[in-house]
Design a protein that fits this description.
205 residues
Length: 205
């Protein structure tokens, strides 16, 4: 096995060329789905690699409640510098778990605040907020979603432009772009080399 055991950790270095090729040669819908899948798979493999390195590299530590098979000399011999790699994998894996948990917590918090802010407004598909700033976004909720737009934005648009804006935001909800963005955000937290995929998915979506 040798150094190939570290392949899942460095394979995400190919994310940048993959992202560029997908952006320039694929339909945005296809690119969004493909890049999300690639980011998710690479992140899972990278995290599992860290976990295995940690288990194998620390199997000989006193008091480690691991199966005897993990401390087999042949298993350790398949991992170069098993003890060093195992000890280094511990803080790396903890950092990945902490960053992923923090991302999920922030995502859930933003959605809760969004739903709470819109709870007092009429239950229509479009929620209009009184605000001097011009912005619009799609808020996914159970059973569909709502398009949120400010009065300042509506005042600056003509009727056809408003229809285009609503169609744009509804397309985000229909395609569940929030899920693609969340997956790529988690992937970028798991392995920084996957950040180009997160940027590309935000663009293609």
């Amino acid at each position: 096995m040798g150094v190939f055991v570290f392949l899942p950790l460095v394979l995400p270095l190919t994310a940048w060329p993959v992202a560029r090729l997908a952006e320039h040669h694929l339909h945005p819908r296809t690119a969004t789905r493909l890049l999300t899948a690639v980011a998710g798979v690479m992140a899972v493999c990278s995290t599992l690699c860290l976990a295995l390195l940690m288990v194998v590299g620390t199997a000989q530590l006193p008091g480690n409640p691991l199966p005897d098979g993990w401390s087999d000399p042949e298993v350790r011999a398949a991992v170069p510098y098993d003890e060093i790699a195992g000890k280094a994998a511990i803080p790396a894996l903890l950092a990945v778990c902490a960053a992923g948990a923090r991302t999920l917590w922030r995502h859930a918090r933003v959605r809760r605040r969004g739903r709470r802010a819109l709870a007092k407004l009429p239950g229509t598909s479009v929620a209009v907020l009184r605000d001097e700033a011009s912005y619009a976004y799609a808020l996914p909720i159970r059973g569909g979603g709502r398009v949120v737009v400010t009065t300042a934005m509506l005042d600056r648009l003509t009727a056809p432009e408003r229809r285009a804006l609503f169609a744009h935001e509804r397309a985000h909800l229909a395609a569940r772009h929030h899920r693609h963005l969340l997956v790529t955000q988690l992937a970028a937290r798991a392995n920084p080399f996957l950040r180009p995929l997160r940027t590309s998915v935000a663009f293609t979506a």
